[in-house]
């Protein structure tokens, strides 16, 4: 599974055997060529991608799906001849985010130095992308970011021209949830529970700020922040149950939602709350791991319509993706898989667009530029990039046992769709400023 | 800022129950650590890693046992008897190989070498079961199958009550072992004067292997009991390594009573702390550690023997 | 050569040895200084800078473990304090001069060291290890919690590049800043740390610390104010580790609370131990060994934890306080002896 990093090893040997420095290298000081050459025609060798994701740690939950989807889609694209039908894709390396930011940045440097990778792809953690993306950009290394949601990525680093992100910002999930609450009756009290790191705090802050503008009559009575990867939520469950809130809001994700909901069911939590909005990219994998325990007064979803039952019959591409994934892995794709699907689709479109304009294969700069302001067809309709950043809609659904899919766990139905324009700031407006000024629909 | 509704009695009961349950898990994870240190003078940082191992073995066993049996009694027996026994045997083998040289070196090096063991065990678990969190399927999950009962207006988990009961049995059993049995008395004597016991012609190595393996087996028992209500993740290991050290430091190294009391303190403080002051959850355990070590460097019961 | 050595007097022997060491040191320094210009290899340069930052930190750490005899599991607190000080001083206070920033980072780390030193001064062995761990964890939690809005929680903060004595050197492209400037700053800092600690640890101060390590009670009886010296050693250690962290902050460019977590402390302990806590240069060698080993293990296998764990286990059991540096020295001495006999 893991590809070798031969050339990198050679470098390491060089570093280790420092005494053997060749003194003949001369003093051609810092004359390296930072400019890009042009490429003629369509190169014969494959388009080489290094994928960055969690292969270890709690977030590997996400990483595994992303890796699965990428393997499957790359095989499919290559079976048709590759990008443009002419250039195959090769995943030449996978970097484990579990190794930490130091290693990632160092690896990106090595990869840029070797020049044997055409593009970096994926990445999960918001903290990592905030470090790795500027580093890749410094190296002029194209980087297609597919998963993290932090709205700070481009707001903090507006100058990055070698980075694009095909995942919606976390604003779409949080504000989508606010739009849902806006339409609900009989809600007076809300409790929020979010993982204790930036993803959780950002979601809570956006949700609370926007909700105050949109429904000032609703009161957030308590906000809880359990650890990321918490295994025992029972103390939180008892405390929330005792509040009997009308609504429970949560951006817990991955295995954390599964643990929380299962322990919540055990502690009678969902009998005590009116509605629950679980927006931490939660779909099929959550429902699978919970089996029959899923309470019914729950909305599941978040940024983008990444649930296998969403417009499954209407969208042939989606049907194909879901069925292929199920045939190959015996389960339905989760958010991680969909995110990388969107990424690869954008890459395909970007290459096509660039080649149609310049006639030759694009350089890194040109490819990245071509992926700006592009849009691709995803289950929720046109998935549109505004500049380097996708603006995703929000989609929520209800769990149901009543479906025709060959699995014995619930899936989602009764979808609510909130357009991208309602849940993303207009181009150029900083997210938090927009959230503070948000108005009722 | 305590919301008034929280002062209602049913929830105090709920929090107490949660606290007891967490205390039970802490007890399983740390009692062996303190015994091995108190009796055998080995500071085994990797001790709680066997808690994580027990959790993974339990998930694997329960998820594969469905074809053979789904009887509740059988499932519980697997958790309480079969898995700890298997780990007991494994631990005995490890004691004779990996851990044997560690008894001879200074505590500081014991800590560091066993930290190496944690790292290795970490990857062995990852190799066997992957890095993705895994949980017990509903059909063979005692926690889900047993459900809850209504007690004084609170919903109380039957399975978790069972876990608390096992912890109590285990604590009482250990106490009786040390007070009543010959092996227990030898162990106590070893904790006071290892050389003397050796000179009496007693086969200390056999006692050592027994105490070590029993300690590890209890940790694995804790992990096995923990997992049906929770989920096995690679992070569980390090979390409980830290927690178990907090327990034995607060309780006092080498004291059985200390482990019981410290587990209860941490369990209760955490449960009520999360309920009433959610913002300080993370800090609670470390703040307790700091206060106890500064105020009473030997821990609450550190200057006493294994059982007073 | 070695057969002739005994003909020198004792003093002469020591001097020659020292001069040879000095010479070797200067050669290594010059080779390292020329390395980036010779190879223009940004990846190597970065790796070396990374190693040197941690070499400084590991040396600083070893003041407490190797010289005073106390195992701290909380040195991430100083490393992280150094890092966050850089960001806050540059971002909030607006001081952008490299030297000023580094000095401030050392002072702030020293202050944290003083506080932790005073609080832990009466504890020993495992209690000391766990108290330092708990205190450092509390600092970690402050950073994760984003207390006072300073750290931005686990998302972390980006670091901009500092200038140098009013020269707007930070405007250079990242690659050139590293190859042509920053690498050399770190190299000089490491050299300065080595020279400084060499003298400090051979001064009466260093000898007193060693006395405390050997036997605290006896040191106390001979009139050494043990507690005060323990705090001093903690402050010195914290300042050096803080410097390592501060230098590293600029290199990595983005800071998260991970650098305050106890696993970070564990890494620093690992480095010092791998190189040899009973030797002066051990921590430097250990930092290099650790980082290269980790990079190598990572590139060969996804089971790099296992590799690192195995190495740690074996090093502790076989080499103990000598580490690989001490082990190598012993090996060379033995070979020399054997040659001498023949």
From TrEMBL, chain B:
The chain crosses the membrane at residues 20-43, 48-66, 72-95, 107-129, 158-178, 209-231, 243-266, 273-295. InterPro entries: ABC_transp_permease, BCAA_transport_permease. Keywords: Amino-acid transport, Cell membrane, Membrane, Transmembrane, Transmembrane helix, Transport. One of its GO terms (cellular component) is plasma membrane. It is found in: Cell membrane. Belongs to the binding-protein-dependent transport system permease family. LivHM subfamily. This is Branched-chain/neutral amino acids ABC transporter permease I. It comes from Natronorubrum sulfidifaciens JCM 14089.
From TrEMBL, chain C:
It is a multi-pass membrane protein. Its main location: membrane. Keywords: Cell membrane, Membrane, Transmembrane, Transmembrane helix. GO terms for cellular component: plasma membrane. It comes from the Archaea. GO terms for molecular function: branched-chain amino acid transmembrane transporter activity. It is found in: Cell membrane. The chain crosses the membrane at residues 22-40, 47-67, 73-91, 98-120, 126-144, 181-201, 231-256, 268-291, 303-319. This is Branched-chain/neutral amino acids ABC transporter permease. It comes from Natronorubrum sulfidifaciens JCM 14089. The lineage of its organism: Archaea, Methanobacteriati, Methanobacteriota, Stenosarchaea group, Halobacteria.
